[in-house]
Design a protein that fits this description.
The chain has one domain. Strand 1 and strand 2 form a beta hairpin. The protein has a four-stranded antiparallel sheet. Helices cover about 15% and strands about 45% of the residues. With about 100 residues, it is of the alpha+beta class.
Length: about 100
């Protein structure tokens, strides 16, 4: 199995801020996975992130969130990185 570092951007995520109304957000995150090829690495990472965010995303089915793989790199080892990785760098989407 090959090892990959996958950098993902998410957009149009409806989230409720603490004690506030729902706002659209985006995020950036990096995940590390083993897969037989880059397509399987991408699919695996997207599924991992969907599972992580399932309980907090409030989008209506007619306005789903979107995730894009911005960068993918085959790497020789994971080094000191926690696999598959965790955390998100969130930003509030601009209106309009």
């Amino acid at each position: 199995m090959k090892k990959y570092r996958v950098f993902v951007e998410g957009t149009n995520f409806a989230l409720r801020e603490e004690g506030k109304e729902i706002f659209k957000h985006g995020f950036y995150t990096t995940r590390f996975v083993e897969a037989r090829d880059s397509k399987h690495a991408e699919d695996s990472v997207i599924q991992l992130i969907r599972k992580e965010l399932k309980s907090v995303v409030l989008n209506d089915c007619s306005d789903p969130p979107v995730m894009y793989v911005q960068e993918m790199e085959e790497i020789s080892d994971f080094g000191n990185h926690h696999v598959p990785g965790k955390g998100f760098s969130w930003y509030e989407a601009k209106a309009g």
